[in-house]
Design goal:
Shape: globular
Number of helices: 25
Strand order of the largest sheet: 12-13-19-15-16
Oligomer: single chain
Strand content: 5-15%
Radius of gyration: 29 Å
Structural class: alpha+beta
């Protein structure tokens, strides 16, 4: 059979055009998450934890206060050291600027920033794979495998991890160029990407990023010199993000490490969703505990078929780096024979940073390259002439299957378990037929079949990867107001806001500590990995732990109410302590009793500060600055129920005073007899040094980028 001319499928060459198409594809992929659609939103950690931190930072900056101390939870904690706030990540600044006219940060702004990183992941993976001299269709589909397949979809709630996935291809492109040019100069891309990943807010994902970069370099050409350059670039990147790293390093000394690596992923069935999209039922209306420990990892037809074609034809040449990354990440994720834990348990830092399932981010980029190479190998084989009816048949078949999937998508009509093999096999056959036809076509038919391949793959990813239990919440988006709180009476809200120095105790069925942070309430409770060891000891004595970060305090415990400075209790009628609060004369109901949240005032409350044998009055109460006037007949101790932490300083009438630790976790100073003005100020100790190092390193990075280093 005669060979036909092979006219290439050519995606746009302009970076602007590629970026625009990637953004449009992402918007189409997640269209029901967009604010104006109001169908679903990104739930879980993004909505509760990340949004709380971002809004706190936004409101602080909007009020011209650089946030260093967070007084809203755990009786105060360092905000400057909280890396998950991503305060120094450039995307955060853009998000703040875009929403500057709003009183609070809209949740949709954080969602849009997260989805923008999905586009970024596609764009950077597209250019990384294009640099490997692959067929355009192969590297386009490879980028789609990376950005729109299962791992990204299931991790969309974890902002720091999405940032790491987005920037990883840029780092690998820099490593490739360093090996090609035999020069360290291109590794500026790795250094910049590494700093951005760390500033994105999740150090465990940075560890994955660093290990992927190191293994990728060692498995490639010019390996030892490239690997040495990678180590140097990673170390340099830590200087770039010193403004965040140094405060976080200091705060880490005050907390207990969270050894969450566990035993690794041991259930082999966990990985079946790489091949079968709905083997585990991920329907939006399925009870949340269903398949609770399972994840959606679907590689889609391009990923599955590409990898199959690569291994079937023995075409592993050039794939050593991807295979090495895949092997490393799977070992780290599964901990075979306890090998990984036997190593990392000897390092407190590694044991604290390693999270087994997050290493699958490295598998995602390895699968993207392997799939692209397999598709490339297939498309470069000589194509024989095919019957004229095949091209329109392929178009009809791919279109019909895509429409069929879209029709089922809004409902719950997808089989699960072994029955879900039908969906995966059908899509694989349809896509494989389309790819076979695409290879043999030329002219307009080739372009139309190529477009159908991309659309059918995208629809398949969307149907199984969006509006699912693991990444979609139903109902209104989270939102908070500076003038009201949902399900709380206006009178109660106004009274709580009028006492900013009063602490609020949250009971069962009440709001979460992370939620009240949005409206400026202060609570001794919280949910944050930077919970300090000293504070944990106080809580263990006076409260009841519900998890490693959350606890309850009995409002009838007068010692706890006094020590923490609790004045108000927020609860609900169905809470166990509600009847006791109603009956106890020490509590007064605040506001009308016609809202879900019930607010009680503790009439014997002490403020979270006080002067022994004297009177104290608040003059200024802001997170970083507290000013009091005191009057006492004799010398004594002034106490502040705010966590003891480096960076706090105190003065009495302008004269520095030494802060002592009080009640294991709080602050106290000695005050002479008489009338005095006392001031407490918090300034993050290592922030100035970190900022200076980051600025100098940023200048060095610019010189590294601009200067052509001689090849070795």
């Amino acid at each position: 059979m005669s060979q036909l001319p092979n006219i290439r499928f050519r995606p746009p060459k302009s970076p602007f055009a590629v970026s625009l198409l990637a953004v449009l594809a992402t918007l189409a992929f997640y269209f029901e998450y967009l604010p104006r659609m109001r169908r679903v939103y990104i739930p879980y950690d993004l909505a509760v934890y990340h949004y709380s931190l971002a809004d706190y930072g936004f409101q602080s900056v909007k009020h011209l206060r650089w946030p260093q101390w967070d007084s809203s939870m755990y009786s105060g904690m360092s905000f400057a050291s909280n890396v998950q706030a991503a305060l120094y990540y450039p995307g955060t600044w853009l998000m703040f600027l875009a929403g500057w006219n709003n009183q609070t940060l809209r949740y949709s702004a954080l969602e849009i920033q997260t989805l923008a990183h999905v586009s970024l992941a596609f764009i950077l993976c597209f250019y990384w794979l294009r640099g490997k001299s692959l067929e355009p269709m192969a590297y386009t589909l490879g980028a789609a495998v990376y950005a729109f397949s299962g791992y990204m979809c299931t991790q969309i709630q974890h902002f720091g991890l999405v940032v790491a996935v987005a920037w990883m291809p840029a780092a690998l492109r820099g490593i490739d160029q360093a090996a090609e040019q035999k020069s360290w100069r291109p590794l500026w891309k790795l250094a910049a990407a590494s700093a951005l990943v760390f500033l994105g807010g999740y150090p465990p994902s940075w560890l994955v990023f660093a290990m992927v970069a190191g293994v990728y370099a060692l498995a490639g050409p010019w390996r030892w010199k490239t690997a040495a350059g990678v180590v140097a670039a990673l170390l340099f990147s830590l200087a770039l993000c010193a403004v965040q790293l140094l405060p976080a390093w200091q705060a880490n000394h005050f907390r207990e490490p969270e050894l969450q690596y566990g035993t690794g992923i041991k259930d082999i069935m966990y990985f079946v969703s790489y091949l079968v999209p709905n083997y585990f039922d991920f329907g939006l209306d399925v009870p949340v505990q269903t398949n609770f420990t399972k994840d959606y990892l679907y590689l889609g037809a391009p990923g599955i078929l590409g990898i199959f074609l690569l291994f079937r034809r023995g075409g592993l040449r050039g794939s050593a780096q991807a295979l090495a990354v895949l092997g490393m990440t799977l070992v780290m994720a599964t901990n075979p024979f306890g090998l990984v834990w036997s190593v990392i348990q000897h390092s407190q830092l590694l044991a604290d940073l390693c999270r087994s399932a997050y290493f699958l981010a490295g598998s995602a980029i390895a699968f993207a390259e392997l799939a692209a190479r397999g598709l490339d190998r297939f498309l470069k084989r000589p194509a024989s002439k095919t019957p004229s009816w095949m091209a329109p048949a392929a178009l009809v078949l791919m279109t019909a299957w895509a429409l069929f999937e879209l029709k089922r998508w809004p409902g719950a009509e997808f089989a699960h378990g072994l029955g879900s093999l039908y969906d995966a096999a059908s899509m694989l056959l349809v896509f494989g037929f389309g790819l076979y036809v695409f290879r043999s076509q030329f002219g307009p038919w080739r372009a139309w079949v190529g477009l159908a391949l991309l659309l059918s793959a995208g629809i398949d990813y969307k149907v199984f990867g969006t509006s699912k239990r693991f990444n979609a919440g139903q109902g209104p988006r989270p939102g908070y107001s500076a003038t009201a709180y949902v399900a709380m009476s206006a009178e109660a809200f106004r009274e709580l806001k009028s006492h900013p120095d009063a602490r609020v105790l949250l009971q069962e069925f009440g709001p979460l500590a992370l939620e009240v942070r949005h409206v400026g309430f202060s609570t001794p409770q919280g949910f944050d990995p930077f919970l300090s060891t000293q504070y944990r000891k106080v809580v263990t004595r006076l409260g009841t732990w519900q998890s490693n970060r959350e606890f309850l305090i009995d409002p009838m415990n007068s010692e706890a109410m006094r020590l923490f400075g609790i004045r108000y209790v927020i609860t609900a009628e169905r809470a166990p302590k509600y009847s006791a609060l109603v009956a106890d004369p020490k509590f007064r109901s605040v506001g009308p009793d016609n809202e879900y949240y019930k607010v009680f005032e503790y009439l014997d409350a002490n403020p979270p500060y006080g002067m022994e044998d004297g009177a104290a009055q608040t003059m200024k109460w802001e997170p970083e600055d507290r000013v009091f006037t005191v009057e006492t007949a004799s010398a004594g101790r002034f106490t502040l129920t705010e966590q003891f932490y480096p960076g706090w300083s105190a003065t009495v009438d302008g004269t520095p005073s030494t802060i002592e630790k009080w009640e294991s976790s709080f602050q106290a100073i000695h005050v002479p007899a008489g009338k005095h003005t006392i001031e407490f100020h918090y300034r993050e100790q290592l922030l100035p040094a970190g900022a200076a190092i980051s600025l100098l390193s940023l200048g060095a990075l610019y010189l590294w980028f601009r200067r052509r280093l001689p090849a070795n």
